[in-house]
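Write out this protein's structure.
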Amino acid sequence: MARLRWSSLAALCVLVTAWPAPASAQNAEAEALFEDGNRLMQAGQLAQACDAFEASNRIEARAGTLIRLGECREQTHQLASAWSAYKDALARAKDEQKKAFAAARIAALEPVLSSLTIDVPAPARVDGLQVTRNGQLVLRASWSLAVPVDGGAYRVVASAPGRRDWTASVAVADASARLVVTVPELPPLADGGPATAASAWTRRRELAVGTAALAVAGVVTGGVLGVQSRDRERDAEALCTPGVPCIDGARAQALEDSAHSRAIGADVAFGLAGAAALATAALWLTGAPESRAVAVVPTITSGVASIAIHGRF
């Protein structure tokens, strides 16, 4: 990069002072913007100079303007944009000096260009899939190709009808970076829509609350019936104590029968409470919400970056 910068600066010094002026027949507004770009570059106002050259080129595309735009982009470390401008200049140039200069800069930049590959494997190519890079549509023909890009932050978004969007963000170095972003197969919206925090109150856990209430009611009912059975048993014993003549044998028998039936009812209530408690535990444990957390993990190895998607959809 040091050799690249020095060679670029040396070329700039020559071109700023010696590059031929545009012919008088050229568009006056384009010419004014071109001269303004030269002035801004000499003043070190590079961003404004690049804008002026681009505006001039939009009005009237010329090889000389494109070369100056390429030089400006090199100084702002936008190497892919500079390379593209030089390529356009080479295609338009008729002057041999301009051709030679553009070709030399292209050859110097190509080995150090950064690239971003948006890999879209076959399973991910669902109907209607669109991929954008920083809001700009990436043509299908460019999928899975290493495309030269300027250094900076890039946001890749994949979307398709009836599918959940996918997003990845990467940072590209100014020079010599080779980054790869792999688009996964987008899950259908029917699988649950956008990933959100799952509620703890699933349907099974709501049912668990109901069975827990039944268990509590069973314990209370069993307890009441048990107390009533014991009281009736005592009353019967008071009427007919063993070894003593019964005061009221018929009533004592009725109390014994009532105590026995309430004891059976208490046993049944406690049994139902136990079953309801087991059902409550089973429903609560099996009703835990499914995790839909998604992790986007960028990885960089040997100058190559990729995006790994982890999670459950």
